[in-house]
Amino acid sequence: MALRADPARGDICLVVPKRVSEKTAWKFATDNIGWIEARLSRMQKPVPFAHDSVLPIFGQERRIVVTRTGGRTTACTLTDTTLEVHTPRENPANNIKAFLLDQLLETIRPAAEAKARSIGKAIRKITLRDTRTRWGSCGPDGNLMLCWRLVFAPMQVIDYVVAHEVAHLQHLDHSRRFWELCHQLSDDMHGSRAWLEANGDSLLRYGLRP
Ligand SMILES: [Zn+2]
């Protein structure tokens, strides 16, 4: 049997082999209640894309303000303190996500293109995905993939992840020369790596559950 904490889902999973009875499984969980409570207390509550939720968009806290309208389309506007959503929909979560992805792409694209140009390379396509184990990847063909949840990270962290992937256009490994180039292309490589190490998991709690 094994207990696993999943910060993305905000729960603890107990894996039980078929031959183990439910009673034995519950005893195992009870015996490990200290561990379970410690992990749960460290997990942060999920934050839905809904009215009154606070999202750290580009690292800056913004409250979602949803106004129901009679129109047909949903319009989102970002201010310094709010994300205003005018929508006829009861649940505009998908519209909010689409808006955030657009915002992130608009930020990433010019940064990625400028960094690539500075080392004589070019970006072809940028794709945003909901990745769990890495923040991005980059193929030698110039196709960049980034985790869309980076939209909740500070700008310099996004800048670092972009720099990291662009540096892979030059060096496919994580050699010393790769890190030198990555450092050169980043605003704050060390601070950003430390930030992701400490806060990366917390980005998974925003929006749609996996
Ligand atoms: Zn890498």
Molecular structure report:
The chain is α/β, with parallel strands linked by helices and 210 residues long. It folds into three domains: 2-42, no CATH class; 54-96, no CATH class; 104-205, Metalloproteases ("zincins"), catalytic domain (Zincin-like). It is built from six helices and nine strands; from the N terminus they run ββααββββαβββααα. The protein has helices at 22-31, 33-42, 93-118, 155-167, 176-185, 189-199; strands at residues 2-6, 11-15, 54-57, 60-68, 75-78, 82-87, 125-129, 136-138, 143-147. The strands form three sheets. The chain has a four-stranded mixed beta sheet, with helices on one face. The chain has a three-stranded mixed beta sheet with strand order 7-9-8, covered by helices on one side. Strand 1 (2-6) and strand 2 form a beta hairpin. Helix 3 (93-118) packs across helix 4, helix 4 crosses helix 5 (176-185) and helix 4 crosses helix 6. The longest helix has 26 residues, at 93-118. It is globular and about 65 Å long. Bound molecules: zinc ion. Zinc ion is lined by residues 164, 168, 174.
Notable characteristics:
210 residues; alpha/beta; Zincin-like; 4-stranded mixed sheet; 6 helices; 38% helix
Brief summary:
This protein is α/β, with parallel strands linked by helices and 210 residues long. It has helices at residues 22-31, 33-42, 93-118, 155-167, 176-185, 189-199; strands at residues 2-6, 11-15, 54-57, 60-68, 75-78, 82-87, 125-129, 136-138, 143-147. The model has no long low-confidence stretch (mean pLDDT 92).
